[in-house]
Amino acid sequence: MISSKRTFFKLPIRFKLYSIVLLASTIALLLATSASFLIQQHLIQKQLRDEIQTLADVVSENSRAGLAFEDKKALAVILSSLVAKKSITEAIIFGKNGDISAKYQANDMDGKFDGIEINEQGFTGFRFSGNRAELHQPITIDNERVGQLYIEVDLSEMRDNTIAIATLMGGVLMVGLSLAMLLASQLLKSIIQPITSLSKLTKTISREKSYHVRATVSDILDFSKIEAGQMQFDFRPFTIDRLLESIVSTMNVPAVEKGLQLQVVQAQGLPEAVIGDDLRLQQILLNLVSNAIKFTASGSITIGVEPATEQSRAGKIALHFSVADTGIGIAPEKLAEIFSSFQQADNSYTRQYGGTGLGLTISRQLTELMGGTMWVESRINVGSTFHFVIDFEPDTVQVLENVLTNANISDQVARGLSILVVDDNEVNRDVAQLFLEKDHFVVVAGDGLEALHALGRQPFDVVLMDVQMPQMDGLATTTIVRCLEKGRPLSQELPEVLTQALGGRLFGRHLPIIAMTAHAMGGDREMCLAAGMDSYITKPFQPAQLTEMCRALLAADPTLGRIKEKVVEDEKIATSVEDFGAPVTLARVAAHLRSTTNLTVEQSERVLAAVQRSITDTLAKATAALSREDYPELGRATHTLKGTLLQCGLIDLAATAEEIHQGIRKSSDLPHARLLATLKEKVSGLL
Prior knowledge:
The structure is a single chain. This protein is α/β, with parallel strands linked by helices. It is built from 21 helices and 17 strands. The strands form 3 sheets. Strands 6, 7, 8, 9, 10, 11 and 12 form a 7-stranded mixed beta sheet that branches. The radius of gyration is 43 Å and the shape is elongated. Residues about 110-115, about 205-215, about 350-355, about 405-410 and about 565-580 have low confidence and may be disordered.
């Protein structure tokens, strides 16, 4: 019994639900057919009893005179009338003294009356006995008993009728079960499909820590909040320029990877600052720009913003935002459907481009919840433009003061911070370290566990934390840090010595943790904040990002930067992605690094050495994995390679690495050996 339960619980959820529904239907149908069969059987027996009782009453009434005058011949004639009822096999009229006055036996019966005596036990009435039924009824004249009638009935006919009914009921049961199975299979599709999809998403998130999948889950959660009426907004002052800069910084890498130009067009007369929910506005724009990049093979993506004076309400500032692309376009008859939940303009797009069909739905609902409107204009093979207009509160004091404050802070040089950089990509670590160490003390770590050891050894002003890392990722590491700060139990076990060291340094304080991610999309910010991170910056690193981050930290807490300890950490690990492009040289990569990071020649040489080590090690791992057909390991290696190549500005090669990585994730039939050989050939000038 226990093993059966365990076997059942191990079955896929589809079979569990199907079995439960089918079992419930079977039980219900069995109960219904059994009840119907028993009722029919009772009715048949009652009908037989009533018929025999009626015949007995007639025979008893007609036999009184024959018994009174002992006319056996007349009594025999009366009994012979029972031949009309074929189920009656025997009948006897007993006299007053118990002797047989008359008897009847069906023609096809050759039995004898031996052993049949007048009922001396006082039983009268009708009863079933095995394959026959019998009736004992006294015959009276003026309440004086003058004889007794005995009738025996063969139940073969009734049994045949019962079997026929049972067969019919069985047929009804089988038809009912077939219909139940059909209906169950149809109804379960609507139940199982979302459960199965979420189960697959959960497994994918657990296995690959995919940010694209997490963005999908975030979309689903946002959609659920909106549908439940629980979406909350945080209205605060912000500047349009900063918002647009953030959008471009986040989406420029995926746009460049596809060879697209991402540009912003701002009209004259825009307010310097407004009051609204900049996070939700950013989410809307990110959704629209992400869709534009997804469905555009070549050309450009243009983000536009202009005043919408004619639509402004009293005391409000209406801004008209637009996102235009040169992509595949949308058919006129599909324009009304694309804002529906889980819908895309064409179902084939889901297979070709991916996505849940929720992004536009969420964007439009957020727009409407903020009092705005959204619409789309499109032409097939020309492109699409998504428009939305939202009203904002004007801001004339607080934001201007913040702008002036930030301008003053920007003029200052942020120095002296003790920074822990945590990233599993050696090139990313070196770029961040070499840029920051000019003005700050920098320690690096290759994963979350290394970071915890570093935090246990010395204090830090801030931690730059990569989100996706092996062994222990950034979210788990941040959760541990926040638990130690507040003295709460840890969700995972650490060595006691490390726990004590961390507790001594972290308890009672708040360590700023900045997330580093290449996918700052949709709900990523909420996910990082939920884990306890304070903010995030995007990769590949831009010097302005790191400078601005340090200035903002010092502006928020001038006491930072007083830690003078400096500890050098060892790090060794690489990550990978794919690449496809022309052969490259050290000089080309060095020029890119100097132009994008302002590194000195000496620092560039250090980064190049790290690049060479990382690419060499990663290609070796990828080649070994391919030779033994270890495709998960090949995917991880190419994913690591992608990150290194992106940091070097080798976008085409990174795209090839990503092609291998995504092909393995989706189980696509790709020429992995040829793509990997191409990568080796193209980067040979670096090694």
